[in-house]
Amino acid sequence: MDWRIVADSSCDLFDLPEECPNVEFATIPFIIRVGHTEYIDDEKISVDTMLTANENHREMAQTACPSPQAFAEEFSKPGNVLAFTISSNLSGSYNSACTAKQMVEEEQPGKRIAVIDTKATGPETVLIIRKACELIKQGLSIDEIEKALIDTAAKTHIIFSLSSYHNLIKAGRVNRLVGLIAGHLGFWGIGVGDDNGEIAMRGKARGPKNMLKVMMEEIGKIGLCGSRVVISHSLNAEMAQQLKERLLAAYPHITVDVIPTRGLDSFYAERHGLIAAF
Q1: Confidence of residue 194 (pLDDT cuts 50, 70, 90)
Q2: Domains in the chain, CATH or no CATH each
Q3: Mean pLDDT of 88-116
Q4: Full 3-state SS string of 192-208
Q5: C-alpha angle 226/128/216, rounded to 5°?
Q6: CA 104 vs CA 7, 86, 99, 136, 142: distances in Å
Q7: Phi, psi of 182 (to 5 degrees)
């Protein structure tokens, strides 16, 4: 049976993990508008250039989610489709994918498409896609896989640490006062994705070393039960590696992968931001 995995560009992936052979993969880019310039979140985007432009632009930049037509183009191709989007409470991408699912299934009777609201972004989507690959190899039906992935999304956690909250404040994603406090005097703000797929602040830390300490403490409070962790970073490979080393020291049984954020997650994490999923 042929399978396709489709994700919006919040997944931070360009290719599938190695454990997912013989499955077609496609990502559909968000668009980030800074002034009169559009940055398409694909392989050609320069995250540094986009962030620099945004940092030098006074007005609020905008993001545009993929259209139903963009999803439908990928959904129409042969095979069962598993689609993954950023949290439906952060973007209209999930609604676009659901509209595309209805369109394509009406045009192609018998076509099977499952759209998964990850309730998260970036590294958590990576973990859920990896789970999808495992289930495909086990030979499960699309209904069984969809149910299992929804369960996986509910049990997977995300934590982030940002040195700047300007874009989240402007977009109304975090309280303005909390964001301003976190962004001054060298403070990092630490937050999590809650059960509704929204952003919840957990604390702040002054300086990178304290930031890593607080992140580790928060991960310990939530509980790291699985064997895999993925860390996405926005132009901050050094701190991502330090977080990886701390995690491996505290939890020797796990594996930790570090990947760079693509355009959308870089836009909201801003320069130096870290996002970890477990």
Answers
A1: confident
A2: 3-30+65-155 (3.40.50.10440), 158-277 (3.30.1180.10)
A3: 97
A4: EECCCCCEEEEEEEECH
A5: 40
A6: 16, 21, 9, 22, 16
A7: -65, -30
Residue partners of 142: CB distance under 8 A and separation at least 6: 80, 82, 112, 114
Please state the three-class secondary structure of 227-257 as a single string.
CEEEEEECCCHHHHHHHHHHHHHHCCCCEEE
- Residue linked to tokens 């999803």: 71
Task: For residue 12, give the nearest of 94, 123, 160 by alpha carbon.
Answer: 123
Neighbouring C-beta atoms of residue 72, cutoff 10 Å:
19
Structure tokens at 95: 């609604």
Q: Answer for the pair 233, 273: CB distance below 8 angstroms, yes or no.
A: yes
Amino acid at position 240, single letter: A
Per residue in 236-264, pLDDT (tens digit) is: 999 999 999 999 999 999 999 999 999 99
Measured CA to CA, the distance from residue 65 to residue 221 in angstroms comes to: 34
Assigned token pair, 129: 């896609």
